[in-house]
Amino acid sequence: MEKQRNFVTPWCECGLHKRYRKGWRKDGSPRFHSKCRYCQGIPNGSNRKDANYGNYKKKKYCEKCGFVAEYPCQLDIDHIDGDRTNGDSSNLQTLCANCHRVKSYKEAQKKVYQRVKGKY
Question: What is the C-alpha separation between 89 and 52, in angstroms, rounded?
Answer without folding.
Answer: 9
